[in-house]
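PROTOCOL LOG
Step 1. Enter all chains and additional molecules of the complex.
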Amino acid sequence: MAIVASEILTRLHSIYSAEDLIVNEDELIVYECDGYVVEKKMPEIVVFPTTAEQVVETVRLCNEFDLPFVPRGAGTSLSGGTLAVGGGVMICLTRMRQILEINERDRYAIVEPGLVNVHLTQNLKGSGFHYAPDPSSQGACTLGGNVATNSGGPHTLKYGVTVNHVLGVEFVSPTGELIQLGGPLGELNGYDLTGLFVGSEGTFGVVTKIWVRLTRDPAAYRTMLGIFETVSDATEAISGIIGAGIIPAALEMMDQGIVGALEDAFHFGFPLDAGAVLLIEVDGLDVAVDLEKQKIIELCNQHGAREVRSADTPAERQLLWKCRKQAFGAIGRLAPSYCTQDGVVPRTKLPEILDFIIQTQKEFGIRIVNVFHAGDGNIHPILLFDERDADQVKKVIAAGDAILSKCIELGGSVTGEHGIGVEKINFMDKLFTADDVNVMTDIRSAFNPKGNCSPHKILPTAGACGMEHIERDKPGRQAAM
Amino acid sequence: MAIVASEILTRLHSIYSAEDLIVNEDELIVYECDGYVVEKKMPEIVVFPTTAEQVVETVRLCNEFDLPFVPRGAGTSLSGGTLAVGGGVMICLTRMRQILEINERDRYAIVEPGLVNVHLTQNLKGSGFHYAPDPSSQGACTLGGNVATNSGGPHTLKYGVTVNHVLGVEFVSPTGELIQLGGPLGELNGYDLTGLFVGSEGTFGVVTKIWVRLTRDPAAYRTMLGIFETVSDATEAISGIIGAGIIPAALEMMDQGIVGALEDAFHFGFPLDAGAVLLIEVDGLDVAVDLEKQKIIELCNQHGAREVRSADTPAERQLLWKCRKQAFGAIGRLAPSYCTQDGVVPRTKLPEILDFIIQTQKEFGIRIVNVFHAGDGNIHPILLFDERDADQVKKVIAAGDAILSKCIELGGSVTGEHGIGVEKINFMDKLFTADDVNVMTDIRSAFNPKGNCSPHKILPTAGACGMEHIERDKPGRQAAM
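Step 2. Run joint prediction.
Step 3. Record the structure below.
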């Protein structure tokens, strides 16, 4: 596409300054993949708009030159959500990162999509408010990316996922119109298109502005660490806590493998011989959380806890959360490569899926450690391997596939919060009937008639866009991983 | 359409028994309107399916004979959501009212669409669970209708509206396919079409099964009645309560006019000379609600409350809620006819819109009383008139229009929970840009390509279906009322 390239480049140079445009291969390589490192595809051009108007012009240009385009935030997607399938133009939104308004009285903020998640909460410090969804990657991931994948996080057990906190979005449609859905009051009239947009993984357009709900800071926290001999005891305790009508702000499980890695990294004092550790947090009024804490300790003990510790100071609480949020970093100590899976089962099926994961380890000879949002039934088995060993790679793909298929069999599904992306696109046929997939495809076409905006995400894009390409380039490293 | 009618009737008789099919005009007249009594249109045929298969066959038949069709539950819509615009077949779902499953462990129930809202909660009595959304009409309205309009209710301030409690729907698409969206775990993968479906006012198809979330009963309630000299003091108290970080389970305001009518009807002991009464409920753990109650009383007093009473026994609480939920019935004592409006403003704009309503009363010489979900900024001014007086009818229409336009001006919108229906369809152009409306129309077409399913609801249906008809029949009584 050399001639087109030179033409489109000239046009792009009239929209972007030189430092907001990348075409050199050695710079483009940074954008060849995201947190899902298994599949790679370089975009042909990366642009860094600073205004919505630039995004409009870019999208119109892509349509004129019949090029695919894909939005990208920080690139922390774990499912290849920002992979430039088919090449084309990547619209990187990290330079649109302003907070445009904070309205404490009506409890919303207006932000640009490239704002890093935690920066919003940091800006709210002292106001008594925060932004509730807190993905583990919140120190890096952008709010635009959170909108695309409907991100969760440890505190979404009580506070809900991104869609519960997004009141409106402004976006550039795949055909180049600037459209607003919702606003400070949310989407009250007509179809809930804001709700539909959140989680559409870039297939409905490029977000340029977001109205988010602000959440009041809780008056008090109580954070506990329940230490159990076995994973099964820990999951029974979870059912006991939720069954007692307590909704913890967070309820996270870590198994022995991950606890070992965390202890090596952070020296928190985790017991290395315990089968599982539960990180449990309640929030609310002081008296209420004291009562809930007492009840939770009782329930943990009833279900065979060896010990229940408390994080009694803010510093201890912060360290505990640092451990949990940086768990994935600590895994680097366990193996050269790892693949984080993301499955969901009804909470009552947690013991069953965890048993299955143990079996899977044995069957495939792959080590798997677990850290996950137990309260939601959202598992994150982490498959450890060495990517230089082709045999191990194959086994990891097969083991991940087996675990996800088991999730479906147990009435669950293949992603809780990481999205379908390109990674799990082949599972859609297993999850949905042909009629269901047709409805989804029709809806995508209503927004994205040519399929050139984020092609081959969530749903296959007909004919187009070189996914075959990727599979051909990397035999044996496919979507299931 | 006599010939077609005789053909289609024969075919319908092969699907339905005689008692599940209405064609006589004196029986059809019952279905000529819903709670929005201003516009009327008789369906040509009403059917009462008892199975999803019957719905599929009916929809296919309507497509074959090119007839419009519209689903209906209990007909409590306040916006003409079930009006048979263009005649055709009405699919009345009140005989599909079974509870198919209650799963307390995984906290969901599966119900048929014709189940009356309160019957689900009654069935759950003693289990420790209930179904949270509680529209004022909950003793009559159906869950299918709640899904169609995304119904709210007093307790949605804390617990959210219908969409937050619907995990999945099975529906017959406008082209006659039986489709399932979501399920016991909700819609985890792909687009959130369940969320999109809720609130689509019948334009995406006919619901045949619903998966709903069960909510744990709170451990304790505290219910208070704050009595204020003026509406403005009451609204300031509301801002104070919410600003203090308390989220009441319900926060309802009633003005002097409505309090008088309620007192006449129920003899609760409401003070007849107070400017406004706030009904405030908190729920949660005993100690927590005691603290919140104390704080709320303080805040009410700080904002000039004359008195704050408590409903101290379950019987008192129940009577208070009965008063609130039957407020609309009590209005019959005030005037021969009334029109309940439904607007939304940012909560901080409540004093402004209430002042405007007082002005509007004076300007148009129409009495208006107010009862509404103050915590949400969702107003329900009730315009009193005599429908036999054409001049009053005109004034009511104009006054309602003025109030809704003011809501838009204040950054709000024209419906909080009653839906657009046919009533407010002309406001869509004021609320949305042409591009926004185009996106909505495209989305509707993806589900409803011919526009024959619930025509002329939410969005105008091109050319078709005799809405002009209705306007011609009733000059001067139009959509704004």
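Step 4. Note key features.
The two ends of chain B are 32 Å apart (CA to CA).
Confidence is low (pLDDT under 50) at residues 463-481 of chain B.
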